[in-house]
Amino acid sequence: MHSATVLHTAIREPAESLGWQEKQPASAVVGKTVAIVTGVGLAVGLIVVAALALTGRLT
């Protein structure tokens, strides 16, 4: 039985020495972008709610 790690290393190391770069699939890039935008939106929303609560405008 072959180890996937050994096979991947055997392929990736020579490919990297030739200048090849492994790219992430588009779905992973989209997922990371959605997660970052959601996180930033949540942080901004929490800051706004906290500011409104501290100033007494949140009733």
Describe the structure.
By secondary structure, this protein is an all-alpha fold. The protein is 73% helix and 0% strand. It has helices at 4-17, 26-54. The longest helix is centred in the last third of the chain and has 29 residues, at 26-54.
Summarize the structure.
By secondary structure, this protein is an all-alpha fold. It has helices at 4-17, 26-54.
- Helix count equals 2
Strand content of the residues, in percent?
A: under 5%
User: Mind describing the biggest β-sheet?
Assistant: none
Low-confidence stretches: none
Shape: rod-shaped
Query: How far apart lie the N and C ends?
Result: 65 Å
Give the class from helix and strand content and strand pairing: mainly alpha
Quaternary arrangement of the chains shown?
A: single chain
Mean of residue pLDDT values: 93
- Specify the helix fraction band: over 70%
Radius of gyration: 23 Å
Q: Care to count the β-strands?
A: 0
N-to-C order of helices and strands: HH
